[in-house]
From TrEMBL:
CDD domains: fer2 (cd00207). Pfam families: CO_deh_flav_C, FAD_binding_5, Fer2, Fer2_2. It comes from Paraburkholderia bannensis. This is Xanthine dehydrogenase small subunit. One of its GO terms (molecular function) is 2 iron, 2 sulfur cluster binding. Its EC number is 1.17.1.4. The keyword Iron applies.
Amino acid sequence: MSEPIRFYHRNAIREVSDAGVTRTVLQYLREDAHCTGTKEGCAEGDCGACTVVVGERDAEGGVSFKAVNACIQFLPTLDGRALFTVEDLRQPDGSLHPVQQAMVDCHGSQCGFCTPGFVMSMWALYEKTGHEHAGQQGCANKAACSTPSRDDIANALTGNLCRCTGYRPILDAAEQMFKLEGPKAPVDVKSLSETLAAIERNETFHYEHKGQQYDAPRTVEGLAAIKQARPNTRILAGSTDIGLWVTKQMRELGDIVYVGQVEAMREIRVSDAFIEIGAGVSVERAYAELAKHYPELEEMWLRFASLPIRNAGTIGGNVANGSPIGDSMPGLIALGARVVLRGGAVEREMPLEDLYLAYQKKDMAEHEFVLALKVPTRTGARANLQFRTYKVSKRFDSDISAVCAAFAFIADGDTVREPRIAFGGMAATPKRATHTEAVLADAQWHEATAQAAMIAMGNDYAPLSDMRATSDYRLEAAKNTLYRFWLETRPHNPLAPHAINVRNVAAETA
């Protein structure tokens, strides 16, 4: 039996029973709730004009706030959560929130179309900073909070584009907002947590509209049962790719099963051997954990799409999608990650690179799904692991790679052991460079070795030309990333901080 979608919005619990399964949050806001502050720009999660903040009750009983793109999020995924838009920042007496006042004072808005999205990204940062300062009960003295750095602010705004102001006034406003006195939050966090607890579901949430079904199970067993009974059911995670199938390609998705409420798939477990990341863990959380063990991933973390996309998208979804230009797979493959699959009551695992058979073809039965990823820790011989990832794209922030490279080997003195090289953007799938690895295996890590490996790379890849880069450019860029890897990791290199400090990092995380 179909149940209504229940979520908190505009100071009340809302129940929706007549919306399409793939109706977007943005469509609901503008057409049903008449909250037109949130704008539609690109309808694909790139421009940030539609940015809203979703609140979710966490394991400690608090509420976490995350900026996401309303244009590609489906309304049923709000069930049990809270939705905040720019209208929520208006105070009862009509005064402006410090975020809004700072935008006014710093002249951070011109045409105004992008402004609500910027304001909501800034508010998410404002709340996050306040909660880190004073806990989930709200900050008693927001002015005393340490202001995030300019870089932290820029990173928080990677999902928002503006054609008018040139960003400097907006960054100024994001610094200024922490210095203004004003309302601490549009909601009482403790009260909100209690409200969300009251509408939290313990069993699978089932919703139907015009014959299309949407299920949100709470357990892995529930998810497995649905996929086994109806193998054609589409798995939905962060909607950062599938959302575009609807908004851009106008595709009919059929029945949907949502993994965002399966708690066991949203856990991260660290053992001596592996960092095990549930498939439902957001890209942001996954990279935050991985970067503790492999700080070389920090730049890729920041350059992976934008913060709203990383907040919504999942590491399992990115892996299951298997896009040849996906940025997570090359680094994971170079690190020797393994993927865990579940089908019915059966689990199996394999090296991540073996999952991809051909373009959009994976070694998965129709009823199987990605359950988790297992990334080896930096212990034992891997304490001497040399590892780098590089992204080549036209824009630093929020852009799709022309080439994504990842290199790893265990340094045995000056000798290369167990090299692993993987690329995105160079083939129909994320692919290892086996010929290049063969040249490096058990060789001395000298410049001549690196140059020989660069030549061998021509036997590994024959990339395509497209709007992002030509085939020749891609191959030359790939070779040059290998040479950069040599420059940064060559023996006795005083200019390679990670090559010097990597053992200390390994000792700290062992």
